[in-house]
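I trust your eye. Have a critical look at both lines of this record:
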Amino acid sequence: FSLTAINITNQLGITKFDEEALYQFTLKLFEELADTITEQNTLTPEDSLNALITDLSSRFIVSKDYRHGKDALGPELVQYRGNANTVAGRYVEPQVGSSKKDIPYAGKLLIAHKEIYAWCKKHRVEAKDILDWGRDQKLVEVPEKKISLGKGTTIKTGNANCWLVHMDRLEAQSPSSVLSVVGKTSDEELTGT
């Protein structure tokens, strides 16, 4: 717009700017600004995964078990601040010193695909870059079957395609890991005592 105005004022004899020099200056300035913005707005895949987990963490179910809803123990009382329509994932706590063996997904975070892709779109990040990096680092897997994020809890959800994040490995690899952001359940938190 400004270059057009300069062109018009030059044609009317009001100004005598060197239009070509101004045009070249403008192009160079735009290139420098684009490089600066790209550099400052670029997240590494590791930073993206950490930011994604942090941003979605308030919508993760946090549980001690991943059992069938008809288990003799009944549905598990879990830590969760949202409603069933907004569940983004589920973190099953590691079972340190537990007598229970082979609790599915213990120490893992399951995140629904649709939530990952919505977050990536909003933040202009490529989900594929995060997934490729996560797979290379042995931090992320994509289970072949859909998973019920609310299984065995009082929160009812449908089945969803998910990413499985190995939180223990992520914490070991990344000092700025978000494991603590996911939270932990405790009997005191669950019972209010």
